[in-house]
Amino acid sequence: MSDDPRRDGIGGHERPADNHSKADRWTQGPDMSTYQSAPEMPGKAGDSAETLRERQRLAQIEMMDRWVGGVLTEQRRSRRWKLFFRLIILFLVLSLIAAVVYSAFWAGSGGAAPMQRHLAIVEVKGVIASDAPANAERIIKGLERAWDSENASAIVLHIDSPGGSPVQSQRIYAEIMRLREQGDKPILAVIEDIGASGAYYIASAADEIIASPASLVGSIGVIYASFGFQDAISQIGIERRVLTAGENKAFLDPFQPLDEGAEAFWESVLTQTHQQFINDVRAGRGDRLSDQSDIFSGLIWSGEQGLELGLVDHLASLEEVARDLVGEASWEDYTPRLDPFDRLTRRFTQMAAETLGLTVSNSPLRYQAQ
């Protein structure tokens, strides 16, 4: 008998090796049944056809359940992301509403006045018009706030404007002259790039006008500009239909010729408005104005030329003015802040009117440099 433990029985046949006694890298390892990707056979040997069909049906149901579960999980994940983005949008909308409300009811009224001496700035930027940021109501409100500030050494109209509406300019001019007559604190006009026409009208009411050598000042005149389309519409076969009560009601209609009588009348309106401009500039500037004849001709001058003509008192910058008056380049802006919602609605209204061909300006006359 052999001593070999692997041999047993007649003939000494070799027994299979014990799996636990010797590791086999091909047979040993993790249980493959744990992997979901290895599908089981729908049946076993000896099962009937009906049993096989039942097992196959159950396997399909199980697979469908797993698919439906995955779809539901993905939908829940998608809903969570949608909810997250909706909350973000809601937060942004509420933040915008809060900013509009704050600007309309708190920020526009101004905070506590600075305790140290300073220049009180009121901005006059862009075209002067009732529907523009540089409108009479806003600028006058800024002037009143600056005037009431006890620590303001002077009020500075910080001007960078080509002019605009005669009526808006006259309203601001009148308010500056009223404050100037009280004599409580000086009112200065500091011109940046341009202070022409209606903007110069406003500046002439100040105690002093200060500009840079290259600033543009003057343009003391009135303008009306339009087009004549009567020949154009006749060439393309368009008939203009206008019904009026009053024979001169449509005398500025660009689709009708301007006859000599209407032109003479309109010239008289321009001349009268121009004379109002001249009289107010003379009242504000007094004897400082030069006797040069073309000073009121509508010409625009540099700051250096304006100094020679008496249109400007000094050549300096805003920083230099602040250092002279308060010892440092420091100032506070008293211009009321613009309501973002109001700016948006005004801009939308203006764009809609321009698209529809409606008149945006309230007056065809302009104190404005071209």
Automatic annotation (TrEMBL):
GO biological process: proteolysis
UniProt keyword terms in alphabetical order: Hydrolase, Membrane, Protease, Serine protease, Transmembrane, Transmembrane helix
Molecular-function GO terms, alphabetical: serine-type peptidase activity
Top-level taxonomic group: Bacteria
This protein's record includes keyword Lipid metabolism: no
Keyword Hydrolase in annotation: yes
CDD domains from the UniProt entry: S49_Sppa_N_C
Ranges for region Disordered: 1-51
Ranges of compositional bias, category Basic and acidic residues: 1-25
Domain Peptidase S49: start-end pairs: 182-325
Transmembrane segments: 83-107
Similarity annotation: Belongs to the peptidase S49 family.
Name this protein carries in UniProt: Signal peptide peptidase SppA
Annotated organism of origin: Vreelandella nanhaiensis
Gene: sppA
